[in-house]
Amino acid sequence: MPFLIRIATKARITVALSFIILVCAVWLLQPAISPARQESFPLNRISSQDALLVAGPDGRIIYSKNETKKCVPASTLKILSALAAIHHMGTTYRFKTEFYQGPDQNLKVKGYGDPLLISEVWQEIAQALAPKLRGFKDLVLDDTYFAHDIRIPGVGPSTNPYDAPVGALCANFSTVFFRQDDRGRIVSAEPQTPMTPFALEKIRLLGLSKGRYTFLQDGRDAARYTGDLMLHFLKEMGKVCRGEVRTGVVGPGDTLVYTYHSIFTLEQALGKVFKFSNNFMANQILIALGAHVHGPPGTLAKGVRVLSDYAREVIHLNNVEIAEGSGISRKNRLSALDMLAVLQRFEPYRDLLVRKGRAHYKSGTLKGVKTRAGYIEGRSGKPYYFVIFLNSSHADIDSVFDCVKKSIDNG
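Structure (tokenized):
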């Protein structure tokens, strides 16, 4: 008898579990469930302002809700921006920075928007450049490849890193990471990055506490900080500026003495954009893309034009609204169906996205907005596509995502 009871109990458990899985799958496959019954399901708080879509490896939509509604994509927009950059520049593209000297013995640096000119790179540049210099008077910063005073919609005047300004000549993502030492002095929190006089002055004026901040207001400030950083590393190599640091332009009489090509390919740079969800890098690449396609100076309008044209002409999306390239602006709008087309085009590069378990995806968060889009590997090993746009819902996006995964696992 106990043996029969155990069999019966296991059977009841199996039936119960099957029923739970079936209920979840049926709700997802038929989103138009009556309001009275929706209370029984984990996704009942998805509102009419939200969107949900899941498609199979062949692109066929398995289930969807509000899939044509234009939503704020937040940082999932970076997938579209990356696609446009790959299309026009190629995965092996490398940003460059040029160094000139002229009859006046000034050292001139011309930037082209490299988003990864970090301290370690500037140290390597100084080591390669120093033997080529005859000494120099002024350090002249040519940042004219980008227009000046570019304002990105959604980027505010705060000192938060995500509000860092773009520019043709930038260092360390236009941010500084610092702390106070035992004597209360402001010092760099990174051993590879010196605390430059310009950065120290800005930190004191803004009254910042320890941490990582942007202390720059525009591209000109970014260039000046870059110049100070470069001087530090050149001084370590025995090359001292005899004049001043100032902005200027490379002229016809100047001689190119060194060109730095980034150690990072565009594909590697995009991997970092996705890994850190770096808004500065995304828009830096967008502005450079605009200059690459339509000629300098790079502007927001040119970058947005390239992105919009790519969406329309290559992916055949006619109604997307694009304000910038990172997703920080609420003026960006596209539907879950639009994002599906983007994901299908991006599928060969899905390894650039963050991976968790069997999923590759990009998340996005703004106040009141939670989004996620990407790929989930099915039992066949092929990727399913999913888009979750929560624009006004109080639903937990992790719970929604888990339910999507379970529905795929259960066919």
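The chain has two domains: 2-73+333-409, 96-263. Residues 136 and 196 are 20 Å apart (CA to CA).
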